[in-house]
């Protein structure tokens, strides 16, 4: 089952556009976001195994030598993916509707 790691780093807003393009071009990278806080760059990736996390970090360091990874996290088990509930083996067991068929009264949807 693929492992979605997330890394946090620091970047100046002036260099973010260039950094974003280089990061998004790396294999496995799903999103690159600039956020508020001490570690203002978040990179989300989709890898085949947790062993590939170090390879991704090496590629990030080569693409942007001035960028320093400050924190990382790895999702050990994905419960839901693309509207599907997954079992412990990562197989789809049922779908999750995007919209409720009968919205609750007062929920703001019509």
Describe this structure in words.
The chain has 110 residues and is an alpha+beta fold. The model has no long low-confidence stretch (mean pLDDT 79). The protein has helices at 13-24, 52-63, and strands spanning 5-9, 29-34, 41-45, 69-74, 80-81, 84-86, 92-95. The chain has a four-stranded antiparallel beta sheet, with helices on one face. It has a three-stranded antiparallel beta sheet with strand order 5-6-7, with no helix packed on it.
Largest sheet: 4 strands, antiparallel
User: What count of domains describes the coordinates?
Assistant: 2
The level 1 CATH classification of the largest domain is Alpha Beta
Shape: globular
What's the CATH H-level homologous superfamily of the largest domain?
Answer: Lrp/AsnC effector binding domain/regulation of amino acid metabolism (RAM) domain
Could you tell me the radius of gyration in angstroms? 18 Å
Poorly predicted tracts of residues: none
Content-based structural category: alpha+beta
Secondary-structure element order, as H and E?
EHEEHEEEE
**Roughly what percent helix?**
10-25%
Key words describing this protein structure:
110 residues; alpha+beta; Alpha-Beta Plaits; 2 domains; three-stranded antiparallel sheet; globular
Write the layout of secondary structure elements.
Layout: E1 5-9, H1 13-24, E2 29-34, E3 41-45, H2 52-63, E4 69-74, E5 80-81, E6 84-86, E7 92-95
Protein name: Transcription regulator AsnC/Lrp ligand binding domain-containing protein
InterPro entries: Dimeric_a/b-barrel, Tscrpt_reg_AsnC/Lrp_C
Domain Transcription regulator AsnC/Lrp ligand binding: 15-69
